[in-house]
Amino acid sequence: PKRRSKTVQMAIEPARETTAPEGWEKTLATIKRWRAEGPRAAVDTMGCEKIADVEGEGGAMDEEKYRRYLTLTSAMLSSQTRDEINHAAMARLRAHGCTPENVLNTDEDALDAMLNPVGFHRRKAQYLRATAKILLDEYDGDIPSSVETLCALPGVGPKMAYLVMNVGWQKPTGICVDVHVHRITERLGWTPERAIGKNGSPRKKTPEDTRASLESWLPRDEWIEINPLLVGFGQLTCTPLRPKCAECPLAADASCPSAFKESATPTSEKRRAKKIKLEPDA
After folding, report:
1. pLDDT tens digits, residue range 45-102?
2. Most-buried pick from 3, 151, 176, 207 (CB within 10 A)?
3. Is 159 noted as a catalytic residue in this protein?
4. Phi, psi of 40 (to 5 degrees)
5. Which residues are within 8 A (CB) of 2 and not within 5 positions of it... i.e. 6 or more apart?
């Protein structure tokens, strides 16, 4: 029987601010230098962008096709999960044999045990098996090659789709906006604090708003790198709770308008963070 298609909501209001923020080139160069000279973040060795050498893995599966499938799988596990936990789960899957055929033929309970303690591991085990069947039935074991078709897969939202396009297919299709990119670009004043709805009234900004705003002025050749760059910066320095402004070069050169301004208590900060929904329910 023909599978039911998933409703994919991709459209948002066009970005209204198309002027690049003043001094963004200097700020970006400072972050790049700080990241290059400083300690490595978890994303630098364990993020979805850092799929390890696949030589000799994947059995009879084409090496590039296998790499793309690993990228998709890692992205699907990454939601609500730290890089370290995601990396460990991917290592268990790869040892087991991380191909669409093997995942589909693996019992859901066994697959769930391999994913634990990934966030929502039971649901993700179901998504992985359902996705594996779709890939085998409709894509000859490969992954979809567009944002729209990727978002039609179970458990895949826009953030994951852009990441897979950028890394798996190596096409800068759009900026992957996660919690770190969403937070840091707002702190830097690179995106407006609020979005404007279709009726002209202000509304709460979403990661999709952030993506559209950034893409309206950030050069395309920065689209792929900006995510791991800012994720690492957010993991090490511009943390969600009590950012380390005293150690930050952007505070030192007065290029960050939010430096030393966040003094929220842990409880209030956590409440605010919970209100940001980054991926639609699949």
Report:
1. 998 888 756 666 777 778 999 999 999 999 999 999 999 999 999 999 999 999 999 9
2. 176
3. yes
4. -80, 140
5. none
Place of tokens 């009726």: 199
CA dihedral 217→74→52→139, nearest 10 degrees, is: -90
3-state secondary structure of 202: strand
Strand-pairing partners, residue 202, are: 196
The residue whose two tokens read 């979809």 is: 144
Confidence of residue 282 (pLDDT cuts 50, 70, 90): very low
The pTM of the full predicted model, rounded to 2 decimals, is 0.84
> Amino acid identity, residue 123?
R
Give the pLDDT mean for 14-35.
Answer: 86
CA torsion 105-108-113-115 (nearest 10°) is: 80
Place of tokens 């090659």: 145
Q: How many H helices and E strands in the chain?
A: 14, 2
**Is 114 within 8 Å of 96 (Cβ atoms)?**
yes
Output the six-digit token pair for 211. Answer: 């993506």
